[in-house]
Q: What sequence folds into this?
């Protein structure tokens, strides 16, 4: 029973091994010339504020990310729908438009409520 | 298996109204009107629920409709109505995103309605999260109040943790049986059992205890109850808990019924420990919402007795208990919302002399609390009686004894409030004015609670039929 | 169907008054009076039915209230000669007292509240009378307790009234605790709450002797509480703090008689149980009667004297039940309802006129209040039991039944009680209505709304005893029992008791009217005894000092009283303390720190999984 999960374990060990090895090997071969600007974490071109280790990020990134994911999922959903459109017929066709309509209302909502404004 | 979309018409109606509310929110200035639209939507959904077929399966077996599901959906709609009404009363204290308050309440209710019908672990999880995420936001609603933020944050983190356990358990069950549908899992369970099944099972049960607010995931309840806006507290207390129990009943009775011996020991332990913990910890509380949180933990323990009984009588007892519990909670929280508008405090000491200031308000809280305590002739008494009867019938004498003793203990902390309301002279004697609609609502809730206590016959007969669906 | 209306109408009346017509005093009183009169009219039909067919089968109607496997509770009505008789008493006397109250309570600020409570009481009392099972009876039993509590504490701004209400409530709970245990014993033994079904089971011999004895004694606890028998009699005299119509209706005519009714209803139980059960009942009753009659000698509050006379009467009735004289007891209950209600209402009329309860501040009132005085006189004669007034027949039957049962001690006690009753009742009449005028102000006769009920009651108090005449068919005892009770020694008892009460009246006349021996002289001569009587044998003080103070203050635990109170003190106070401390400790778990919450949750899961999977 437990043996069935052995491949999972092997997989996990393998992944961990590859990841650490990559980092380790590249640290050996790459040139290392650090200066303050270079050591800053990259945050979409915005100057970071405070320590990164305290876990503070600007909440707005989060909102944008969620919006992005929603439309990402929509696209993901549209592809298989387009492929089988002929088989599912009019019902599926209308259904997708309801889905898009709902998303549209969501987008309008986010827009009206100012979720897309960067400066508040 | 067919789609049978028509079985979901009530939910679709409610969803349409929610979308309508979102659109209206762009134009309407006085956001209370959105709440009124929500009330209309709830009523229309209720009408649709009356007309919809009471038996069947929809969305390729992802959801089912049976009398039990319909019963719980009605309960959720009653909760929705009263919470919306409370929210309208509470409107002036909400500073930001007023319209969304009503919308999110109905989203949570929608999640609960789907939970009542869930017949697949995927449906279960998605609707559970629909409800939970709405509640996380609602709990944090008072952005300027640190206690509200704290409550919402704690709720979110502990909730995510619990969801993790639930999902982990589901994945074990799936891994073991290869299905996510309840029926298929039930079928596969019959063939054999192993360590991973038990592990998965237990993780699912323990994950669900977050919604029930019982041991081991009870710890969020006091902080969240205290910090959340009061209508949200009521929604969590009445709605979320009921939804949790619907799922627990559907899962444990219908799906895991065949492997009853596996989980009964755990449920018995959880039940006894939760009853003890909730009732004992409620005693030293100074804040009425916090006290009700612990009382709610105690109630979860009593309801778990019904699960431990794992019989038709147990299921019936639980449904009757939830029915009376919801009305008691609604009554108590209506009184608390209305009173806190005047006094601005939820401290138990603020209730001193309430009977002089507003006899109706005091009577409502009195009836609600005593029904929770299980005092005859109120509904809560019959409910507890039923629960104990179910326990005794299944040989769970010890559990019944703990329950009875703790029911007596619970009288102590409920009567502390009663004592303040009735026996201590207030410093402020200014009467609290209630408008006609509020008075009518309070009377209605009280009458139902008393009616459930003095003439439960029709309800119990009806629930007896409904309860059979679980097995 | 019409039977259910009896319960519905007063209930509707009380809810209507509390919810809607509270502000309209007159309307409220009319609703309340209308409700009780309507009940009286409705109850005429069953009364006539059973008068025509005294041997008819009981009529039972019921519907399911609660039905779960192993427990079936119904709500039902049971009509038989017994309940119909009570129905008549409650609705008829109730109607008169409602009407009287309209006059007596005139101008009181809580007028509507008073009538709402009265209607609630009528509802609850009819519920007891009509109950066909123990559970229903117990529920309504508690409801009359509630109504009584509300009405005793009617003048709640007066501390003594509030205390009296609390006392009545608490003392009754002690009795009711026994009652409910008794009900459970019966249910455990027979599996049903229904009176008729229980009777069948017991007659079939399905219940053991010890169970019967236990059940009988426990149920008697309820009677002791509600009918104010020794040692729980202390609440009744204090209950006189309530308005006088309430004293008449609840604390004389009907509610306190509910205990006697319960004994009659469950007579089969005491019949089948070992004789010790009935013995306890009889002796408690007889002792209460004697005790109360003695105490009454030294009281000077007009309502208190009547209250103690009520205690004596209740003692008589309970004694009758104990010696097996069900019809004798019920006859006394019936006549007592009339003459005691009459005495209270007449006393109320006097109080209404003078605004004092002290008999030494009255005197010579007969000249000013002819109707009140003469009706009071009739009531007193009935209470004393002078032929041909109703009390004579009732008392006579009880004494005959006692003699027939062979309990000579009780019989002698009963005779002495009759003598004492004669003394203090005549004293009351002489001191209040005759002799010199010691009152202040100008008393005048009460309005017709008060005097008409008095006259009607006086008529019944005078003549209602004739229903027990041996020649009548059906007469009272055939109506209740279906057969005539033992007439052994009937003439002897009648003559003896008449002589005794005449002697009593003579003594009172010599002392209080002629001044042959001055009352103060007696009081001084027998000073210690008089003090003991005046202080009601110190029983109240005993309870106050030993039980109330100790438990209330939680200091000493009444070690020298009884073990029961040690147990209550120890377990109740002790366990409350322990549970509170556990509660505080548990609260510490909820630290408020999220990390610890998460740790607790995960830790809990791990521990539970460990125990339930590997354990």
A:
């Amino acid at each position: 029973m437990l043996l069935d999960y052995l491949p999972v374990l092997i997989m996990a060990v393998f992944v961990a091994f590859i990841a650490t090895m990559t980092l380790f090997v590249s640290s050996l071969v790459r040139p290392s010339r650090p200066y303050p600007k270079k050591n800053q974490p990259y945050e979409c071109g915005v100057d970071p504020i405070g320590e990164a280790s305290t876990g503070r990020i600007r909440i707005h990134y989060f909102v944008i990310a969620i919006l992005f994911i929603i439309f990402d999922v929509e696209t993901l959903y549209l592809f298989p729908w387009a492929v089988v459109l002929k088989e599912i017929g009019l019902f599926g066709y209308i259904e997708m438009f309801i889905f898009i309509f709902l998303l549209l209302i969501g987008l309008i909502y986010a827009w009206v409520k100012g979720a897309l404004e960067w400066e508040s | 298996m067919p789609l049978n979309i028509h079985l979901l018409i009530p939910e679709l109606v409610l969803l349409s109204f929610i979308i309508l509310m979102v659109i209206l929110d762009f134009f309407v200035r006085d956001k209370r009107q959105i709440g009124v639209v929500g009330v209309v939507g709830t009523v229309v959904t209720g009408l649709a629920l009356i007309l919809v077929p009471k038996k069947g399966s929809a969305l390729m077996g992802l959801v089912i409709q049976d009398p039990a599901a319909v019963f719980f959906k009605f309960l959720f709609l009653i909760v929705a109505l009263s919470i919306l009404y409370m929210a309208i009363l509470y409107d002036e204290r909400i500073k930001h995103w007023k319209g969304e308050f009503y919308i999110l309440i109905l989203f949570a209710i929608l999640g609960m309605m789907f939970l009542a019908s869930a017949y697949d672990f995927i449906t279960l999880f998605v609707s559970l999260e629909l409800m939970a995420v709405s509640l996380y936001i609602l709990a944090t609603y008072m952005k300027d109040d640190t206690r509200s933020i704290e409550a919402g944050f704690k709720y979110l983190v502990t909730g995510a943790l619990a969801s993790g356990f639930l999902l982990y358990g589901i994945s074990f069950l799936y891994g073991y049986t290869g299905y996510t549908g309840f029926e298929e899992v039930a079928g596969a369970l019959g063939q054999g059992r192993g360590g991973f099944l038990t592990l998965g099972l237990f993780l699912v049960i323990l994950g669900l205890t977050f919604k029930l607010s019982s041991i081991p995931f009870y710890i969020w309840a006091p902080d969240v109850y205290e910090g959340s806006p009061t209508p949200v507290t009521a929604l969590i207390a009445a709605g979320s808990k009921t939804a949790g129990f619907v799922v627990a009943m559907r899962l444990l009775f219908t799906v895991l019924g065949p492997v009853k011996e596996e989980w009964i020991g755990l449920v018995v332990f959880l039940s006894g420990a939760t009853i003890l913990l909730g009732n004992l910890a409620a005693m030293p509380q100074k804040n009425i919402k916090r006290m009700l949180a612990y009382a709610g933990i105690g109630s979860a323990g009593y309801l778990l007795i019904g699960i431990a009984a794992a019989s038709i009588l147990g299921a019936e007892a639980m449904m009757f208990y939830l029915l009376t519990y919801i009305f008691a909670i609604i009554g108590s929280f209506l009184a608390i919302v209305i009173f806190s508008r005047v006094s601005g405090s939820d401290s138990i000491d603020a209730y001193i002399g309430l009977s002089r200031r507003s006899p109706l308000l005091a009577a409502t809280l009195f009836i609600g609390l005593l029904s929770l305590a299980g005092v005859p002739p109120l509904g809560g008494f019959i409910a507890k009686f039923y629960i104990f009867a179910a326990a005794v019938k299944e040989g769970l004498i010890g559990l019944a004894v703990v329950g009875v003793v703790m029911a007596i203990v619970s009288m102590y902390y409920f009567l502390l409030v009663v004592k303040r309301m009735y026996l201590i002279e207030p410093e402020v004697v200014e009467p609290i004015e209630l408008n006609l609609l509020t008075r009518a609502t309070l009377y209605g809730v009280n009458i139902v609670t008393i009616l459930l206590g003095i003439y439960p016959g029709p309800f119990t007969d009806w629930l007896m039929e409904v309860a059979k669906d679980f097995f | 169907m019409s039977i259910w209306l009896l319960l519905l109408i007063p209930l509707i009346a009380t809810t209507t008054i509390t919810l809607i017509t509270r502000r309209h005093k007159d309307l409220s009183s009319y609703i309340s009076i209308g409700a009780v009169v309507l009940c009286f009219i409705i109850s005429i039909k069953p009364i006539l039915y059973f008068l025509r067919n005294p041997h008819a089968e009981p009529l039972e109607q019921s519907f399911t209230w609660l039905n779960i496997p192993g427990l079936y509770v119904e709500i039902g009505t049971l009509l038989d000669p017994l309940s119909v008789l009570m129905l008549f008493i409650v609705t008829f006397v109730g109607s008169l007292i409602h009407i009287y109250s309209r006059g007596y309570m005139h101008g009181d600020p809580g007028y509507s509240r008073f009538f709402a409570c009265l209607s609630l009481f009528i509802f609850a009392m009819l519920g007891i009378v009509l109950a066909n099972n123990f559970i229903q009876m117990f529920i309504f039993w508690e409801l009359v307790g509630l109504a009584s509590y509300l009405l005793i504490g009617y003048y709640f701004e007066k501390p003594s009234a509030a205390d009296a209400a609390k006392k009545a409530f608490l003392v009754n709970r002690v009795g009711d605790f026994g009652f409910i245990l008794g009900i459970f014993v019966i249910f455990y033994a027979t599996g049903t709450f229904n009176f008729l079904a229980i009777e069948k089971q017991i007659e079939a011999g399905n219940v053991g002797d010890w169970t019967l004895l236990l059940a009988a004694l426990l149920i008697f606890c309820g009677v002791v509480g509600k009918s104010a028998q020794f040692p729980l009699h202390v609440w009744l005299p204090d209950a006189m703090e309530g308005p006088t119509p309430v004293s008449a209706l609840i604390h004389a005519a009907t509610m306190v008689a509910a205990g006697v009714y319960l004994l009659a209803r469950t007579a089969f139980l005491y019949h089948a149980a070992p004789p010790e059960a009935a013995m306890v009942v009889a002796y408690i009753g007889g002792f209460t009667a004697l005790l109360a009659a003695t105490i009454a000698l030294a009281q000077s509050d007009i309502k208190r004297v009547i209250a103690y006379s009520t205690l004596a009467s209740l003692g008589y009735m309970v004694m009758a039940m104990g010696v097996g004289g069900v019809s004798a007891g019920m006859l006394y209950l019936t006549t007592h309802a009339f003459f005691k209600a009459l005495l209270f209402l007449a006393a109320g009329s006097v109080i209404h006129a003078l605004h004092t309860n002290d008999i030494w501040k009255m005197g010579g009132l007969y000249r000013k209040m002819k109707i009140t005085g003469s009706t009071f006189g009739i009531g007193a004669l009935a209470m004393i039991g002078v032929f041909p007034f109703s009390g004579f027949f009732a008392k006579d039957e009880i004494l005959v039944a006692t003699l027939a049962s062979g309990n000579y001690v009780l019989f002698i006690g009963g005779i002495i009680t009759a003598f004492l009753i004669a003394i203090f009742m005549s004293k009351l009449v002489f001191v209040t209505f005759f002799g010199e005028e010691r009152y202040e102000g100008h008393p005048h006769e009460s309005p017709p709304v008060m005097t008409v009920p008095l006259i009607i009651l006086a008529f019944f108090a005078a003549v209602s005893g004739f229903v027990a005449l041996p020649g009548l068919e059906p007469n009272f005892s055939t109506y209740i029992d279906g057969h005539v009770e033992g007439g052994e020694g009937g003439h002897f008892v009648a003559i003896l008791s008449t002589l005794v009460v005449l002697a009593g009246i003579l003594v009172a006349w010599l002392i209080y009217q002629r001044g042959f021996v001055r009352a103060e002289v007696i009081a001084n001569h027998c000073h210690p005894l008089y003090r003991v009587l005046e202080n009601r044998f110190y029983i109240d003080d005993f309870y106050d000092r030993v039980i109330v103070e100790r438990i209330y203050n939680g200091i000493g635990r009444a070690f020298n009283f009884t073990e029961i109170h040690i147990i209550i003190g120890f377990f109740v106070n002790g366990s409350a303390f322990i549970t509170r401390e556990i509660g505080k400790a548990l609260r510490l778990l909820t630290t408020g720190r999220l990390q610890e919450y998460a740790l607790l949750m995960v830790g809990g899961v791990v521990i539970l999984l460990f125990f339930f999977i590997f354990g």
